[in-house]
Structure formats: C-alpha cells, structure tokens
Batch of 3 targets.
Target 1
Amino acid sequence: MLQATPLTDGWIVRHPEGAAATLPASVPGCVHTDLLAAGVIPDPFLGRNETEVAWVGRRDWTYETDLDASSAHEQTDLVFEGLDTVAEISLDGQLLGRVRNMHRSYRFDVTGLSGRLSVRFASAYAEAEAVRGRLGERPAAYAEPYQYLRKMACSFGWDWGPTLVTAGIWRPVRLEHWSTARIARVRPLVTVGHGTGRVELAVDVERTRVEAPLTVEATVGGVRARAEIDGTDGVVRIEVPDARLWWPRGYGEQPLYDVELTLLHDGHGGDTLDVWRRRIGFRTVELDRRADADGTGFTFVVNGERLFARGVNWIPDDVFPSRVTRERYRERLRQAADAGVDLVRIWGGGIYESEDFYDACDELGLLVWQDFPFACAAYPEEQPLRGEVEAEARENVVRLMPHPSLALWNGNNENLWGFRDWGWEPRLAGDSWGEGYYLGLLPRVVAELDPTRPYTAGSPWSGSWERHPNDPAHGTHHSWEVWNREDYAEYGANVPRFVAEFGWQAPPAYATLRRALPGEELACDSPGMLHHQKAEDGNGKLRRGLERHFADFEGDFDRWHYLTQVNQARAVAAGIEHWRSHWPVCAGTVLWQLNDCWPVTSWAAIDGDGREKPLYHELRRLYADRLLTLQVRAAGLELAVVNQAAEAWTGAVRLRRMSVEGVVVGEVGVGFGAEGRAVARVDVPKELEPAGPKEFLVADTGGLRAVHFPAPDKEIAYPRPEFDVALAPGGIVVTARTLVRDLLLQADRLHPDARADRGLVTLLPGEEVTIGVRGWETPDAEAARSALYCMEPSR
C-alpha cells in the first residue's frame, strides 16, 4: 500500500549570498511569511511598508531540510504540490530537476537517497526579464513582467493589490513510498440522464513491475465495478440508479457521492497498492450561446434549468496564498452564499485554488467559473512557456474535474479585448500574444479531457472576431466605462447578454483602516490612504462619482467615508436592478469583486480584514430570489417584479408618492403576477410619478421595498434627520421621526470585532428597524448613535 510522509518540519530558508542569515521556514509557506515570522521585515500590509520589502522579490532564496528516502518499498518519490516559481531542486548536490511553473505539481524519483534537500528559487523578476529579453516585449495593462512566466500575475501588483513578488514551497510536499504500481492519474467523466448517474474512471498507473497483473475496483453510491489494467491504463464504468441531482443553491439540494477507486495486485491475493478518493455530484451543465433577435446569448443551463447567474469575481484571498486555510475559504464562501450568490468566477490573474475552495463550493451550491491564469497582457506562445501552459492545463483540468460546482472553463481575462482595443495589435507586429492558447490549445485540452463542461475563449468575448470582443449584445461583457468615465446611471443605457465584470470602488471599513494605517490622521488623501489606493486616478474617480450626487463631503473624512460606501452600494444596485429586470435577455451579473487580498480601497464587497462593506448587505437584497425595482423607461416609470424562485409570485404592490417631509401625496394598490423564474412589469400611473426633487416614490409588498428619488441627493431638500435609538436584545432599534435615507450603522466603530447584520436602510417617518450587532461587549445607546450615519440636508 502506498505510504505518504509529509515533509513539513526542519526547513530553513536563506539567501545564497548570506548563509549566516539562516531562518526557520514554514512549509507550505513563502519567503515573505518566513521573514515576517522571524521579524526581519515589517508587515507589508501596514502603512507604506510594502515599499520597504520590495527587495525580497529581487533576491534568490534557498529552502533546505534533511531528507531520508530509505524505505522497504521499491520506489520513493519526492512530490511537490506547488513551487513558486522558478527553482532548482538538488539532493546532496545531485540535481533532481528544474521547475518554472507555480501552477503545477512535480515528482522526482529519490529511491534510496538521503542527504540535504535543497530547493533554490531564482528571483521571479530575473526569470521574467530573461524571458522577455529572449522573446521580445509584449504589451500589458501593467509595467511589471508578469506575463513572461507561469506565476500568479497579481503577485506583481494590480489595481487593488500590492506588489509582493513571492517565492517558496507554497503547497504541501511529501514523500510517497510504493511498490509494484501506483495510481498516477484518474480522470472521472460524470454524466447523468433519465435518472441514472454514470461514472467513467479513466485510470493511468505507473509501474515498477511490468509483468504484474493489476485490477482497479471502484465504488460509487453503493455500486461496485472492476476492470483490468492493460499496461499502464484502464477504464472502469459504474451506473448509479436513481441518482440524486446536484443543484446550485436556491434551485435544489447538493447531494454528493463518495467515489473510491482501489488499485489491486491480482498476483498477490488482491493486495491493495493504492487508493484514490474524491466526491462527485450528478448534474448537467450547458451554456446556451444561440443567436436570437437580441444578439448572441450566454445563459447557464443546469439540469435543464435556465438561470440568471448571481455572481461575484474572486481574487486570491491573500497575496500570500499559503496563508489561506480551509476555514478561511469556507468563511469567505459562506459569506458569498449568504449574500445570495450562486456563481463565483475565479479570475485569471490569480491561481487554480486548492481543493478546499472547490469542496466548499460543492457543499454550498456555488457554481464555479474557472479562468485559466491569463490576465490583461499579451502572453508569448514560444517555448518554454507553451509547454508549461499545456502541462498545467492538463493537470488542473483533471484535478478539478470531480467537482460538480465547476461549471465553466474560461481561456483568459480581457486579453482578446486588449488585443483589439488597447493598442496591442500594432505594437505586436505579428508576434505571438496568446490567441493560440485561447482559441487553440486550451479548447483542445478541455475537449479531450473534460467534454462534460463548456469552454469559452475569454471574458469578455463576443464569440467571433467578426464582432467587437466586448460587444454587449453578444456573449460576455465587461462594463468599465461606468466607474472609469461615466456615472452609474449609465448602466441603464444597454442590456448586455451577460455582465461578467462591473463594479464601483469604496474604502474598507473604518476599523480595517485604523489597523492598516496605525497612527495616521485619516484623510481621503493622507499618505497611507493614497498608498492603499492602487487604481489609476482612483481617488479622482471616487471624487467625481461623489460630485455627481452629493455636496459637502470635502474635508470631512467620516462623511467622505460614509458617502463613498453609499455610492458603491447604489452604483452596484443601479446595474443589477436594471439587468435583472431584463431577464432572460440578460442572463447574469458577476460583480467585481467579492473579496480583497489586503486592506485597500477597492471594488470589493468584503474588505481585506474580512469585514463586510455596506455593498455586501446590499447584495443580499439585490441577489435575493425576489426583488422589487423601480426603473426609468422611455414611456415613464416601471415597476419590475423579479422572481427567481420556482413558485409563482402574485400579490399587490402599495405605491406611494411622498414628499420629503413625509406627506403621502398619492397612493394606489397595483396587482401583479410573476411566474416562476420570470419578471413581471407594471407601469406606474403617471399621477404617481414624483413631480421634482421634493418628492419620491415608494413601492412595498411582502416586506420588500423599492424607492425612487428623481434627482441627485445634492438637489433634494432633505429634512434634518431625526430618530430615536434604543438598545434591544442583540442589537439596537432605530425609530424614525422624519425621512431617514440610507441609515448605516458602522458597527466596527463601536468595537473592531463588532458586526452589524444589515447595511443601508431607508426609513419613512414612524418606521423602525432593528439592527442586530454581534461582537459588541458593552452595548450603549449613545455610542450606537455616534456610529450611525445617514443622508443630511446640504449646507
């Protein structure tokens, strides 16, 4: 039976030119976390320390430990699940191999060997610059040379991330001792039809004895099957009757089946040589990309059910990925599920995540859209990169195939768009740039290894070079004119078929800023705030976004901080409400972005310390099965009743035209009926449309509310907000005596560990809301009042 021995203890790290500077190392880990643990470098997440540790990425580093590979087995392999990135591995001076890809695993035969194991990492900068020197310059969105080697691109910085170029043994390493044969690879094809689940397990083995008779035995759902291994491969097939279907969250349950495949040596009484275990789910997933009267669709279809994808983009949850634990993955993905998310897109500037990520998605019912790791750059296609790309793709496609949550393979992020629109084509002058990967190599690998899942060449991608790559009428669309140049009201200008990226920035929570910028007097343009704002002209875009809607925010940090949070939530709401109201023409929105990898002003709904911004709570409303939204159409105001639940939704909406002083000017009840997974549209009577900035419209039904103000806040004569605050078990109660728009409790101002259970809420005179608060050790009504913010009249 194969035996595995983890190699986690006894590692040291040193710089080759300074052998005296030898430090204990954690494996898995990276050089930054080891230097941080030893007190050699300051925390790069705090203040402007990032610049003080830039030297780390420019150096070579060596990891060492003692290795004893002696064993009673016939063969011993040294297995690295992940090396970051360019390294030379030797044992007592004997070269075992050289590697150059963070996204792959590696295996070396060390049978009978022992001595000092050394893993010498070259600077990723040096390697990338050497490749650039050989192959020539390629354009990219950023100046760092991330496209010249197979490494997590955002290690080199992004418009939300720090430049912390890592090196190290970032995933587990172990010794595997085995005899006769071992399981080298299992490729599971899982299908279902007419109630029967089918599992085809293609098995590759590695042998030490060519003549040994081998058998594989597999069990799934209580069904057992056997097959012989002919040479080094074989196939075992199992049918599972009455297979229960796996569904995305909100559509059904997520039953998972254990699969166990055992490699047996028939010549020795059926001795067990190796065992492979995974979990699978039975479901079908398709992508409907048919042409229609509105262009070319992009609709996920799971088990025959068409769905509007309620998505978020995922970036690495830490710039040092080895620090992301199974528990942290589960916490972050549980936050996504609790916000109504049913699809998570793993963005192409990061990594193929660990099994823990996909396991959590399987259990939570979160569909996974997996980018291949290419982002915002022209990537050379010459060797050695081409061979590395194919090897990593083959390994990771097979590794991730068992997960029912995995729904889509995507070739790249924004590279097809960049080639056409960002001036790359003339600069390249015929040089390779990645098209051969996205339209050739990668679809061939997916078609060969994982034909049960769809592949798309990129995001955005219109499906053909005959159209603009980011044409909103065809395929996937990234909406970045809004935020970069336009007001969020412009989201309503078109109806893309699928919005794979859009978003609006806001700073992190107050307590996150206080931790990240110790001792700094906070201002929107203070040195630390500017350092933790990585977007080009990010603060300028925040300011211009505020100027379109608000007055009196300059010079008051607390007010600026609150209003940027409001603007972020409103911007995202403007997009999602508009696009959801146009289902099934628009079939999904994928917010940029769910999470952050450090404390930073960004588009995230959850900040770098794991605190939810108001946007997160707004997502819970926007991504709920049922949504009310008031939309401005050419013919006037329209109420869209969005029903993503399976059951029909019927009822009556109470429409009230009100003055900002709280007087009801007009009122009517309107009936509606929305079929399951459908949208009903109700015209608002003309007499109920607000007459100007002193009026607004409220729609209520079944505890849901939509509010429409016809003018920017700076034109609205808000009354001075008046409300009472009282303590309640587990929180506070706020009772409004006037109109109180966008009330927000910033619970982390009460205590860094305090969290509120809701975000922005608008109260009419006489209404009250209970805000749950956890992590607040000494509840106090007056303290709560000081942490409450809302819209105020302009001065």
Target 2
Amino acid sequence: MDPNTRGPEGYGHDADEQSSRPRPPRDPLTPDFGQHAPTLARTVQLVSGDLLLTVNPIDGSEIEPCPPAERPSRPEKLSAADRAEADRAAKPPVPPGPTRPAPPLPARQDDREQLVRLLARGRSVRLVGPRGAGRTSLLDLVADDCADLAPDGVVRLTGFRRTPDDLLHDLFRAVYDAPLHRPEQDELLACVRDIGAVVVLDDIEFGGTALDELLDATPECAFLIGATPDVPVPSAESDVEEVVLGGLDRAAGMELLEHVVGRDLTEDERNWAGDLWFESEGLPLRFVQAGALLRQRDRLRAEAEAVDEYGVFEDAPPADAVETESVRDREEVPLPSLGEAAAPARLLASRLSPSARAALRFAVALGGEMPHQAHLPALVGDTHADAALGELTDCGLVSPVGTRYRLAAGVQIQLEAAGYADDLEETALSAARHYTWWAGHPSVTPERVSAEADAVLAALGVLVASPAPAADPSGTDEDETDPAVQLARAAAPAFAAGLHWSAWERALRAGAEAARAVGDVTEQAYFHHELGVLALCDGRLDRARTELETAIGLRGALADKRGTVAGRRALALVADRTGTAPGLAALTATAGEEVPDARYEESQSPPGGTPAPFPPVVDTSTLVTHRSSAPVSPVPTHKGRGGVRSFARRNLVAAGAGALLVAVLGTVVTLGATSDGDPESPSTRVGVNPSASQGAGDDSLGADEAAGADGKDSGDTGSATSRPTDPGPDGTLGTSDDPTPTSSAKPSDDPSGTHKPGGGDSDETTKPPSSTKPPSSTKPPRPTETETEEPTEDPTEEPTEDPTGTPTEDPTNTPTSSTSAGGPTSSRPAETTSSASAPQSGDPASPGDSTDTVI
C-alpha cells in the first residue's frame, strides 16, 4: 500500500466491496433546464363601464355585460400615505451610484415664486420654454412648494404622447383607489370633477380646444403645464396664465458651470464658457454638458499625472522609451473647441464606459427611449451595466420624462451622425426579443410592462418599419414567427391589463400590420379581434363592427371555432347596443360549430331565408296544368325569396315537373305520328267500336271488354261512356279524384250514319286511357271491311230529351277541361282532351289528329 496514496482499504473498507458499491449522485450545481410543464397564460378580468372584459392572450379577449353583483361601487380616494407612494412612483428612478446634488437655479427664483402665487390662487399656469431650458427642474421645485395647497395634494403627470382622455384616466388612477376598473365616460367625468389637486403636467403635446376640454372636466384642479413653443396655445376663453422661460444670463451660466464642475473656473475656462453662453443663448442644458466635458478633461489630466508620479508596472517599457499616443494625449488635453461644446454628445460618449456607449446605442435604436436600468444588464450583456444610467445623467446626455429617461434635446441627431445608428435594426431586434420574453413572463406585472410601454412600442415600430427583420446573429432561432408579431402578442395583453389602453391600441395596430406583411392570417385575426373589443369598450361601435367582422371572416377561413365564437359574441353585443342586425359574417355558421349564447341578432332570420337541406314541398300541379296559351315557364318566379340556393331548388322542382309533362305529351305525339297519311285511314274516322284490342277478352292494351253475352261487339258504348272524361285536379285520367259523370252520353241519330271529326254530336267519347304504355306495334291493326263502313246504330238506345225537344246536355257549348298545351277550345272534340295538338273544327284530317290512338 502506498503511504502517500492510500486506497479504500486504508480507511477500513474492503477494496472489492467498495468498488462494487455505486457512488451516490451529486447534487446538481445548476437547476434543471429541461422541459418543464407549460405555465398558465395570464388572464385578467377588468370592468370597463358596464362591460366585463376578460383579457385572454391565447384566443382573444372576451367581453360581455357585467353582472350587477360584480360591478364595483363608487371608488374611494387614496389616503395621505397612498398619495405619497403614488407621488414617489410618478418620479423617474434614481440612477445607481453616488448621488450628485441637484444643480441650483439662482436665476429661476423669481419665476418659481410667481408660479407658486398663481397656483395658490387656483389659477392654471402654462410654462413655456425651449427644450433644454430647465423647465422640468423648475416644475419639480414648484411641485415641492405646493404640496399642501390642495386637499388632494400634488399629482404629477406626463403629457408625452398622451391624449386628453388618457390624462383624465391617469388623473383618476392617481387619486382614486380603483384597481382593475376603467370607468365609462360619464362616471369618469363625475369622479374627476370632485378632484381638488395641483396637477403638474409636463411635456404636453396639445392645446387649443383639447386643452379646454381637459380644464373644463376638472374645475377644482389647478394645472401647472410645461410646454415647448411649438405646442398650440390655449384658447382665449380658457383663462390660463402663461409664463415664458428664457435662457440664463452670463453670471448665472458661470455659477451653474462651476457647480457642475465642482471647482472654480480658470481664466481660459471662463473665456471658453463665455463663448459657449453666447452660442447657446444661455440654455442650462449646454452648461451641464460643458461641465461634464471639463470633468472628463480633469480626469484625463489626473490619470496622466498619476502615471508620471508612480510610473508603470515592471513589465512596461521605461519612461524614456517609445511614448504611446494615448499617454501623450493625456498629458496635453486641450479645452474642447466651440463646435464640440455646441454639439458635445460625440465627445462625451467617446469618454464613457463601454456599457454606457452600448446603452446609448439602444437608446438611439429605440428613437430616444432609454430602457429601464433593470433591463440594461440583459441588453448590454454586463452585470454592472445598470450603472451606465448614472454616467449618462451626470453628463447631461439623458433627461427625465415622466417616470423614465430619454435622450436629451439634440443628442439623438448628434449620436446618429457619430455612427451610433449603423446597426439600428440589429439593436432594435435584440431589444425586441428581450422585451418579448420579459413582457410575456407570468412574474412580470402589467403595471411594470405599462411603465416600459414607450420603449417596447419603439422597438416594435422599428421592426414593423423594416422591410425584413434582421436575422439572428447566432443562427439558433428556429421560430418562424415574425419578431414584431411575437412582441405585439406578448405586450398587448399586458398593456390592456395595465389599463394603458393607448399603448394597447398602438401595439395592436403595429402587430396587425406586421402580421399582414408576413401573411400570418391567424395573428391578423387575433389583432383585429382585439381592436374590435377595444373599440367596443371605448364606445366606437362602427369601428368595433368592422374589426370584429374582419376577425370573424379570417377565423372562419382558418376553422378556428373558439375564436369565431368569441368574435360572434362580441359582435352580438355590438348589434345589441346599436339596435341593428349583425353582418353576414356573424350569421354564417360552419358545420358542427358551437352556437353562442342567445343574443339579439339570433332571433332574426337571414336576408336570404334559412337554408334547408331539402327543397320545400310545392304543389306540382301548378307547374303542370297551365291555363294560359303561353308556354309553361320552366322557372317559376317567387319574389321575396332570394338567394342562390332557393333559385337552384326552384329549378330542380320545375325541371322534374317539366320532364313529367314532356314524357306524357311525347307519348301521345309519338302514337299519333305512327298513323299513315292516308286520308281514308280509320284514324280519321270516329267509330264506336275501335278494334284496339287483340281479342275479345284481352284488355292488355286498354280496349273495352265485350258487352254482349255472345262475345260480339254490339256497338253499345254505354260501358265506354260511363267512364269519366275529366282528368280532375291531378291531370291524370283514371285516378280517384276524377269526378263522377252525371249522365250517360249516347250517340245521336245521324241521317248519314257517319261521324266526322269535329262535327255531329259530341256526346260520343272514346274510352279514357287506362295506361300510358305505348302500343306494341308501330301501326294499329287495319280494321275489317265492316268496320270501315258506317257504324251500326242501336235503335233501342236513344238520347234523352226534355219536353221542349232540347237535349238535356249540350256538349258542344260546355267547356271541358284540358290538359293539353293549347288550352280549352269550344270546337275541340271531347275525344282529344289528352291530345297535344288537336285539330280545330273544320281542319283537314292529318295523321297526327287520330283520336283512336289514345290509350
């Protein structure tokens, strides 16, 4: 056993036993980054007026009338402690690092006292000054002096990219305790009318009538408004005092510069500051930036002196060796030129830390919006990058705007000229991916996302404006969804839940445009649905109808049943509020689709009628028996029943009835066409005993049975004329609806003993057809010689006459019903009632006029 490296047996364990025993696994040093169960989507329920809004980031928000039990009561005002917390949250965050004292404003004392006096009298004041004139700093000092003037204290608001309606809601939430409640317009005006506070409103962007509406809605508030000269002035009736803020004088400028530098100025520096004051017109921002340049110059000189005093490390070359260019520049640091002092952003940024320069690139890419200091480590890739915000504020490159920071006046243009916007799209894409992950994380509250709304919307705007999103530098992104669409989907529900609805609308419109550009129909439907819900909450019903119908149409094409039902419910609510029927998109249903709750529009029938799986049952007799001489129209007209399907069903019914009529008429015409053209043919003569049957007892072809007992045809037509001749309503002989004949017509005495077609008595009728089958032969059998002669009359059978000698029936003057296409004719014999083309009285006989071929 090696004494230096002892084995298991040295510790009292057997080597074989120890080797066979498995070692326990170590505790993992890092958490398991495998696949976890998916987290639930963050859904929030809001009350907007009398509506209950459920923000659903998956299928789209759902909206319905709020039940009375869930409607919040009139909100209560915040307590003094809550007002102090709200005022602290309205200020921008303090940058990390050593805190520098605020610069004094000795030349602004008169303006400060004037503003406090006006506000104490309840007057509203408009402070006008150019960017960089120190307007925000003066407003902060006046707000501190007015803390005890009003019962509701001081309310700080920002008007940057805010509308009058947004400011009213911001004022409501700053004074009242109403979580997840957005009051309707009447309730909002009633609440803000009772607010008595000093409202400090900076960076306002509107004036004129819009400003008058804001002031009229809050009669108990005194406004201290900060604006630039390019903002429209209030109207003359608004009674708003205006105070103009100009630049500093030369002495005040020198005092401010010495305070920023932290020492007295040399003679050269005073002369340099005098030239700067003349060029900048005394703007305080220029002196703050000039003081930052002098501090950087002092730091460079201090580093050069330290090198000269203490030397360098041992591995460095000796001092009398080749002198580097950087050391030579540090030894001789001149004052900045007047041009560099007028546009100091490039020079100031070049002397900052790498993290601060990277943060400036993100600010330039986001249109001047500086990300929150908590996001800088993730964006820059440095754990200490949050300290970059302190560097930027000290040198005057960023200034506070509301609860955040933006690039100071003129810095954006100067940095773009210095090359900070060369990789703008890649930088904006990196920020968008970070905000997509952050805004969609369940642990991030909607209020935090709403506070970062301007930076998120700026990143979204850059991606939408780009012709194509930049590719992932690492090449590991396998998600094919557009980054702009992803960011809009993640941020829009958070803006809605955070009651920042102006940002919600901007995110939805940008997302819809991005989805349209990439052809993502699913995301287009989502964004249009959300825009419709937002318009419904704001009372813009026409816009809501348009957006919802667009979303329903897109989701119907995608067979998205859940989304379609949610859209139809919202559209039903729009129809209920407008009192109009919903559009066609809300009524078009797909097979097996879930039916929404009963709404107003479901009680009305569609304009084209309710579709039926089978055509309606109609009276086909009206399609077959037409009483006019005009040809039967194949398509009957039914006004008031529009639609393509109804038209197709009517065509189907008419076509079937027409086919039946053509079959019947075609059979008759075909049988008539089989007779030859001989004028002496028996077909032109009417006989009482046509030999149509094959035998005396055979009635297979519809012939009459033998009347006599001896089987010989006696010529009595009583059995033939006892059958009905009127086909009845159905147009077919031999059916149950045929009327019963009232008399038995018998042949009258004819001196010549012959019967001509169209002449003589019309009481003689042939046997009605008992079958529609055609004859078995193309020609009927030729009659015998006895049949071609005059028929034998029966002397015992005579027609019945009344006492005046007039027959009881006059068939020639009684119109008979006809099913022929030509309609009834008084001179038409009764035997041709089922013929398609019967000859008129006096017409010559033709082969088609045969009457004994009717079967």
Target 3
Amino acid sequence: MIDLPSDFWNRPAPETLAALDATPEGLSAAEAVRRLEFYGANRLDERRRRHLLADLVRRLANPLVAILLVASAVAGATGDLASFLIITAVVLLSTGLDIEQERRAEAAAEALRRSIALRVTVLRDGKPCDLAVETLVPGDIVKLSAGALVPADGIVIEANAAQVNQAALTGEPYPVEKCPAPRRTSTMGEAPNALLHGSSVIGGTVTMLVVGTGAHTQFGKIAKALGEDRPPTAFERGIRRLGILIVRLTLFLVLFVLLSHIALRRPPLESFLFAMALAVGLTPELLPMIMTIALARGAERLAKARVIVKRLSAIHDLGEMHVLCTDKTGTLTEAHITMIAHFGMDGADCARVAELAAINARFETGLKSPLDDALLAHTAGHSFDGWAKLDERPFDFGRRRVSVLAEKDGRRIEIVKGAPEAVLALCDRAEDPAGEVSVLDQSGREAIMALHDRHAARGLRMLGIAWKDAEGRARIDTDDDDGLVFLGLCVFMDPPKSSATGAVARLQSTGVRIKVISGDAAMVVEHLVGQLSLSVAGVLTGPEIDALDDAALAARAQSVDIFARVTPDQKSRIVKALQARGHTVGFIGDGINDAPAIKAADVGLSVDGATDVAREAADMILLDSDLNVLADGVMEGRRTYANIMKYIRMGTSSNFGNMLTMALASVFLPFLPLTAVQVLLNNMLYDLSQAGIPFDRADPAEIARPRGWNMSALVRFTLIMGPLSSLFDIATFVVLTWIFHSGVGTFRASWFIESMATQILVVFIIRTRGRFWRDWPHPALAVSALSCLAVALALPYLPFAALIGFEGPGAAILATIVLLVFLYLAAVEGLKTFAMSRRESVRTGPPPTHRQRRSSRPRKGYAP
C-alpha cells in the first residue's frame, strides 16, 4: 500500500489528491486496472483455515494431555484395557469439543465481509460508473448518498449536509458531520474530513477520495486481529501449569522407584511396570471429563438465564475474572438517543420549545437523524393538526441547521433547529416562557451559553430552537435566517441501562474492578460513570495512550478506570496491558470497534443486538439486556472453578500420598504393596467416585471473591495432605505386617480397601472449608462416591478376586482398617483449614480504596 503519513487526514484536499496521484475527475480505467493488480481487491483477506490435524496436534502438546496419553499407553501395555479405553475416550472427547467450539469463532471475519456494501458509484475517466466495491483502489473518487455504507477508508473532498454514523467503529452514538475542511486531530475517527470503512451515511451526500482498501483500512485491521490465533486464556494457562506440576511429581517418583529397585537388584521388568503404574496412578485421568461436565453444567444454568456460552472454558475464566473492561455505548447505555428536556430562557421545561422543534423535525425531508427520531418519539402524543409545510432548507455543514417554513391558522413562521451556537448567533431577540419577545442583549446570550455549558459538561447533546415571522413568504430561497427569535434548547442523552447500576454494584462488591473503555469524550464517560455510581479512579485518553509504550501502559492501566477517545487497537492494547500485570480480564462490547478487544480478553462478552462481528468474537453472548446476568455468570464461574479444584486437590494429594507410600514401601517390603494392575484399578475406581463433583454446591466463601489457579497453594495442600495420607498408609502396613502377619494376597486386599476408603471418604471433608457435617454434598456426589467405595470393599470377596491378586481380609483386620480410616478423617478435618490456605484466593478483602490504589505496590498474584 501507499506509505501515507499518520496525519494524512489533517491535510487539505489538493494535497491528498496529489499524494495519491489522483484528480477530482477520478482515475482512468487503465490506471484503475493497474492499481488493482498492484494493491489487490478491496476485500478483507481470507484467513487460511487451519487444518484439523494441526488443531489436534496443538492440543495434544498440552503437558496434561500428553501425560494422559502416556498413561493410556502404559495402561494398555500392562493389560489394563479398561483404563486404556477410558483415558483415550476422555482425551478425545474433551479435545474434540474444544476444537469444535474454537472453530465457530472463525466465522468472525466472514461476518465482517458480509457487512459491507456490494456496489458503489465511482468516477472513471470523468464519468460515474456503478462498480463492485472489490474493484476500488487508492486514488478512486467515490460518490455516496444517504443510506450508503462507506466501502473504504477515504478523505472527503466534497460534502453536502453529510452526516455519518460511525458508532460501531468509534463508539460515538451521535451522528458525525463530515466536510472537506481538515481539522488537526489525533485520531482518524475524530477528523471531520475522514471516512471510515464500515460506517454509514445517514444524511446528505459526500464525495470521497479512497486512501485505503481491504486489509489496510481500519476495518480491515480489525478483521485481521480477529483472524489471528487467540492467546492462551487464564483457564488454559492454569491447566498447563497443573500439567507441568504433575510431570515433575511423576518424574520424581518414577526415578526414585527405578533407581532404588535397581540398587536393590529387583527384577527389572517388574520394577519398570510398577514404576509406570505409579506414573499412571499420579495422573488425574478423569480431569478432562470432570472439567467438561462441570463447565457443561455451568453452561446449562447460564442458558436458562439466556446466556449463550460459545467456549466452555470461558465459564471458569468468568469466575476468575477480577477486571472487567466494558464499552459504554450499547453495554452500559441503551445506544438509543432520548430527549430528556426542552427548556426555555429560564431553564425550565417549555412546551412551545418541544412543539416547534417537533414541527421542524416532522416536516424535514430525507433520512431522519437519531436526534430527530428522539424528538418525534418524545412528542408522539402531540397533535400537529392545522400545521402545513410550505418550504424547507435542509441541513448542511456550513449552515449547521434546518429551516422549515410552516403555516397554521393563516400565520406563517420559519422554524430553525440546529447547533445551539450557530442558531444563537443569528438571533437578536428572545421569547420568554410567558410568550413575551424582547431584545437579546449580551447578558442574555451569556446566560443561554452558561445554561448550555452546564448541560454539555454532563455529556448531553443539545439543539437550539428559534423562529421568526414569515408573513407573505412562500419559499426559503435565500439565506436570510438572521433576525431570529431564540426560543430554547432541546436536550438529548444516551441513557444508561436500567439494570446497569445494580449490576456493576454487584460486580464491584464481589471483587471485580470495572474499567470503562470508550471512544466517546472523557467528559461524557465521566458523566455516565457518575450516573451509575461506579467507584473509579483516573482518566486516560487515546492520545495519551499513543504516547506510552506497552510497559508504561501496563503500569498506568493498573490505576486508571476510565479510558476515553480510544481506537479499536488501543482497546486491545489496554486489555493486553492488564493481562501483562497478571490480571484475568473480561471485556464486554457490542460494536465492530470492540471485536479485537473482545477476542484478546480472557473472557470476551457481547450482548444481544451487537454487531455480527462482536458476537462472533465473543465467548459468551447475553441475550437479555439485564447486565445482572453477567454478575450471575461470575458466580456460576466461581462455583465451577470451586468444584474443579475439589477434584484437583483431592486427586493430586491422594494420588501423591498413595503413590509415595507405595514407592517407599516397595523399597522396604519384600514384595510390591500393589501390583501394576491393582494400582490402575485403584486409580480408576477413585476417579469414577468423583464423577458427581460437578453437581456439587460451593461454599459461599469460595465464590465471594475471584479465585484463580495458584500452583503454590496446590503444592502446599498436596505436601500437607499427601504425607498425612502416607502416614496412615504406613500405619496400615505396620499393623498388617507386624500384628496380623498377613500374607501377600491379604496384605494387598487390606491396603487396597484402606486406600480406597481414605481417598473416597475424604471428599466429604475437603469439599468444604467449614465443618463437613454442616454442609452435606449433592446427592450425585454422595451416590458416585459411596457406590465406588462399595465396589472397592466388595472386590476382595468376589469369586474372581484371586485372579487380580486379592484375598479377602478377616473381621479383625477390617475393624482395624475402620479405626485407621476414622482417625485419618479426623486428622484431615483438623488440618484442612491450615492446608486450604486463604492465600489460594486471587484477592483477599474488599476492593482497595482510591488511596490504596495510588499508594500500594502490585504484588505477584495479587490484583490491586
């Protein structure tokens, strides 16, 4: 593409034409063909679809998945067909589900391509031609009228009352006036002579010079960002860290067993198979299934609340989220302009102001602007009987007003509606609320502008209303609008959603910090934040962000909660800057300009009524406008995380404890405490016993604050509970060997029963931080756990028990095992508060105050 300077839109039309070697008459057909070959078609680059096999390999490279596949291979090699089939099926099921969900997001770029106009009027060889937008090239002259979509990035060279809606790209809900005159601005979206690909012309006509096409437009950059591979989310990063932890524990135990057995001259093959069985025993085979069931349950609950969950793991990320970045328009506000007041000279509501403004809007021809629609909606019940239109002078950028000549009961008046400062400059008189007309002096003008400024400071948009007698006139054929009588102002706003205040309050009360990121002016955003009673601190604007590198932005983003006049690229930078500081970030938006940030976030959210692009980029879509659904989703995510952590805590600690015991015992006992097949059977039964965890409830304390993957806390829990389990296992070994002098078959059956009882029953204690008898588990968990325990107790007494190396123990041994299990469970109940340290939470205590935010230094793992 042509290398244009960053401030290209700040230059006058002749300079822009010269820079592109173009003329107001357009390119020649031959030159257009040459440029099309050089620049390519004006369409978004299609993303090369990743091959299914490449997707599969990428997921299998995850350490946890790799461990499970190795465990599956070992199980098959040792003859444990059941474990081989279960582990393989679980891995393939969870991996296939992930692939299917992620590929749905690839429709985002296609949605972008469908949203642009198909044909456009272009000057070629000085003549207008109706051509496909794909044929546009830099240097083309394009003519657009009301209702057209802007097909490329361009510079205005002619305009007649042109108004453009670019809310989806910039977040500005009000129509923007466009004209050829440049004005020095910091962003292209603010420039009055710049047109953005994907915006729409809602009034007037415009002629533009094409300066960017296809992927080189602002629109194209967004599409390109959506086509890039998504960085790992918080959930995926946590699973990877867990996999690495299990790999380290597994390597430690396997090497210990192999080296010690080799030193003791044990049979090599038997030692190797036992070591491999220990490795399998340490792997949480059913973790993918437990996670999938838990997340699917969360998705089912959210579906009842009318939330579409496109990526299951986003439910966990939503619960871990402790920073929510939100767009303003369409998410916190209704994205629907409403007239809220119509006051006269004294600042009080005046019915005559609304009446004359509505007559002007009603008789105005062409497409209505959102302000006209709001005005007519506000006066929908008013009768206009008797009024007749005689003539009109439409809005144009130079006049910045609309004039309508109307008549009622034989009296003709000209009604003018437009920018307050433009209308006021033409007035020499004013009408007070009593209907009296008097001379408008300087003090009166200052009073009107002071009234205007007070409302503008609140982020409100206004129109000035004026009139004058038009006796004997039938047309408005000259610009004779001077000598007007100023009547008053109509005030408009984009109101906040009725549910927004309560929803953001709920989120803040549960430890989620809200950051508002908008393309609107800082003053407008601050006013909205005040209406929503948001607790925020600091403001950072787009130009200020441009002056910061990524490291500086990450530091500033920590303490700033309002980001104004930002571009789509800057929204993504803010999200990534927060992630760089260790935050789990959510982003909710509804426009094209929000899509890159939605995708970059750990959990991307959109709302019903959002653009196709925003919905496709999102992980979740709220079908109802009530943002309390989002707060409910956060609680559901935390509940899901709490249940997944129950399995991980118990799986790692119990497996580590039992495998550590067997590794130690295998060195000192003259025989293996369990054979490889028995180890795998133990692990499979234990995993199946936990299948009811996804249905369980969560402690209120577990979901009160954001919680994330904390490997140090998990290691702490494992190093406390694992050795505790080993201590009682060793006690069992001592009793069986020195007191009961058990044979090999009885020893293995007895320890198998003790091991299964301690592993399975401990779930009822560890599942809650409180006393276990005060919080009973979900029936599904009770059934799955107790059923598997019953199978484990019965196995040594079944007719085929000898085939798997078991000989049923007698009543005295069983009574001793019951006592040891009871003592173990009592010890766990006493130690669990210490083991389940509060340091596992991402943040403790209430959100910091403004003073704390400014003064505290961020710590690793702590979200200020």
